[in-house]
Design a protein that fits this description.
The structure is a single chain. With 119 residues, the protein is α+β, with helices and mostly antiparallel strands. It contains two helices and five strands. A five-stranded antiparallel beta sheet has the order 1-2-3-5-4, with helices on one face. Strand 1 and strand 2 form a beta hairpin.
Length: 119
């Protein structure tokens, strides 16, 4: 399936890359929701988290490792960051290609109904 991400991967749409290897591409979001907002995508087409297979799990683990590396590289590891994957229309996924948002660089607001305080 052709998406904006497949066009970025093939180079027909430019991007501000921060990481690339043979399996993964990471680049700055053109409409950032935080001071640091990077998209991390597999070069292999996977429509959403629902289509991840057991064979894809090493790729998912590598994406998480890249997110950790980028958080350090971009100076947000110590203060904290958010790694988000939206899946499906009700989950907020707008591009049908698996991707993660790495957000940081400011105190991020609470997500509706989700809190880390379990007092």
């Amino acid at each position: 399936m052709e998406t904006i991400f497949s066009k970025i991967i093939e180079g027909s749409i430019p991007s501000n890359k921060v990481f690339e290897n043979e399996r993964i591409l990471a680049f700055h979001d053109i409409a950032p929701a935080a001071p640091v907002h990077v998209l991390i995508i597999p070069k292999k087409f996977i429509a959403s988290m629902n289509e991840v297979t057991p064979e894809d799990l090493p790729l998912i683990a590598e994406i998480h490792s890249v997110a950790q590396q980028l958080a350090i590289q971009l100076g947000i590891a110590e203060s904290g960051y958010r790694l988000i994957n939206n899946s499906g229309p009700d989950g907020g996924q707008t591009v049908p290609h698996l991707h993660y948002h790495l957000l940081g660089g400011a105190k991020l607001g609470a997500l509706t109904g989700i809190s880390d305080s379990h007092k």
